[in-house]
């Protein structure tokens, strides 16, 4: 146990030092992957997120989001899944400069449910992607933003 | 005062965990209207939820989450006296954490 801890500390130190130069934000964080949240076009972001897994459209995920959002800076979203063995739920906004909004890794103690509030840059499709061990399930919904969502 | 508020509610044998965090969540593309300079990015990167010391959710997020973020989770089971703690780390290295006991 102790040896493992040493090794972990050593590797994290090495990785951390290497990482600082690469990250724009300047803070190295072991879990947060800067590449996932890079300002990519939608296709590239999806590729990065799926990591080679196939994606299947399904109706077993409920994506609850208003069809018309008056204010794109605050759009409530709720994702509930009825699929067994969900490991993580991600929410991706197609038209945002950084499409991936959140990726939540949920342990089996939690129901496959998450609720959050998103920022939408403009009218866009919102995808909820539930990841199991082998495949990803997705569901999408269009949200119309009536005024600019980015405040600027 | 802590930036995190946690509320829990027992629902049909499950426990709903709701949290509200006060954080600017700036994505770095907004301009300050008075100085006309870009406001630097400042957003939460990792949010962790633990239940009696065991991590139950790790959320990695970008600035696509709105200002003063709200999250809700649904814990299977859970009982009175369970300790839920939530902590976050942002891109500037700031941290905060808060504990809550289910009642």
UniProtKB/TrEMBL annotation, chain A:
<feature type="signal peptide">
    <location>
        <begin position="1"/>
        <end position="30"/>
    </location>
</feature>
<protein>
    <submittedName>
        <fullName>Transmembrane proetin, twin-arginine translocation pathway signal</fullName>
    </submittedName>
</protein>
<dbReference type="InterPro" id="IPR006311">
    <property type="entry name" value="TAT_signal"/>
</dbReference>
<dbReference type="InterPro" id="IPR038162">
    <property type="entry name" value="SoxY_sf"/>
</dbReference>
<feature type="domain" description="Ig-like SoxY">
    <location>
        <begin position="47"/>
        <end position="150"/>
    </location>
</feature>
<keyword id="KW-0812">Transmembrane</keyword>
<dbReference type="Pfam" id="PF13501">
    <property type="entry name" value="SoxY"/>
</dbReference>
<dbReference type="InterPro" id="IPR032711">
    <property type="entry name" value="SoxY"/>
</dbReference>
<dbReference type="InterPro" id="IPR016568">
    <property type="entry name" value="Sulphur_oxidation_SoxY"/>
</dbReference>
<keyword id="KW-0472">Membrane</keyword>
<keyword id="KW-0732">Signal</keyword>
Automatic annotation (TrEMBL), chain B:
<dbReference type="InterPro" id="IPR014756">
    <property type="entry name" value="Ig_E-set"/>
</dbReference>
<protein>
    <submittedName>
        <fullName>Sulfur oxidation protein SoxZ</fullName>
    </submittedName>
</protein>
<feature type="domain" description="Sulphur oxidation protein SoxZ">
    <location>
        <begin position="8"/>
        <end position="99"/>
    </location>
</feature>
<dbReference type="InterPro" id="IPR030995">
    <property type="entry name" value="SoxZ"/>
</dbReference>
<dbReference type="InterPro" id="IPR013783">
    <property type="entry name" value="Ig-like_fold"/>
</dbReference>
<dbReference type="InterPro" id="IPR014880">
    <property type="entry name" value="SoxZ_dom"/>
</dbReference>
<dbReference type="Pfam" id="PF08770">
    <property type="entry name" value="SoxZ"/>
</dbReference>
């Amino acid at each position: 146990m102790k040896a493992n801890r040493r090794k972990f500390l050593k590797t994290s130190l090495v990785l951390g030092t290497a990482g600082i130069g690469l990250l724009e934000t300047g803070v190295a964080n072991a879990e947060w992957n800067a590449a996932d949240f890079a300002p990519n076009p939608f296709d590239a972001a999806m590729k990065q997120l799926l990591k080679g897994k196939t994606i299947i459209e399904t109706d077993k995920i409920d994506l609850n989001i208003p069809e018309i959002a008056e204010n794109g800076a605050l759009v409530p979203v709720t994702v509930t899944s009825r699929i067994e063995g969900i490991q993580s739920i991600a929410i991706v906004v197609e038209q945002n400069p950084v499409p991936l909004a959140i990726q939540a890794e949920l342990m089996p103690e939690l129901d496959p449910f998450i609720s959050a509030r998103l920022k939408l840059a403009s009218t866009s499709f919102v995808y909820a992607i539930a990841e199991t061990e082998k495949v990803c399930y997705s569901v999408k919904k269009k949200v119309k933003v009536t005024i600019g969502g980015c405040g600027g | 005062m802590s930036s995190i508020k946690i509320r829990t509610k027992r629902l049909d044998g499950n426990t709903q965990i709701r949290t509200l965090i006060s954080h600017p969540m700036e994505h770095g593309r907004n301009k300050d209207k008075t100085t006309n300079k870009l406001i630097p990015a400042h957003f939460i990167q990792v949010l962790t939820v633990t239940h009696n010391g065991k991590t139950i959710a790790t959320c990695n997020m970008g600035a696509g989450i709105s200002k003063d973020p709200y999250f809700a989770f649904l814990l299977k089971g859970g009982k009175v006296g369970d300790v839920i703690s939530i902590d976050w780390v942002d891109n500037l290295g700031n941290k905060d954490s808060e504990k809550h006991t289910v009642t």
